[in-house]
Amino acid sequence: MILDASDECNVLNFNIGSSAATSRSWTIKATQYTCGDYDSLGGPPGCLQYFTGTTGKISSFNYPTSETTTTTSSSHLSNQCYSICFRQEATKCSICFASAIAGQNTFGLSVSPDAAA
Hints:
Blueprint: E1 47-51, E2 83-86, H1 113-116
Parallel strand pairs: 1-2
InterPro entries: CUB_metazoa (IPR058698)
Domain CUB: 44-114
Organism: Lepeophtheirus salmonis (Salmon louse)
């Protein structure tokens, strides 16, 4: 995850909720990039994810990537609105996306329970 920051003090708040009592721990690594140094994996401003190279795998947060069928229990995290950016590679003028898993029902969009009602 890439977050834009200013020269001032930056405060990040993570709101993680669960209906079940669980114990979780995280290791968070913070890396600072020089302004304009997009190729150091930071990407242009506003990009939460930044992909480089001619091949790779793109996935959303909290969405299964190994299932052969997108089930009704699969859901995206709510209230996500972010940009995924791709660097144009030298000598390339187009981009092509394909499902990582072959077969029917391997790509899907989820609807939140509130939106489905």
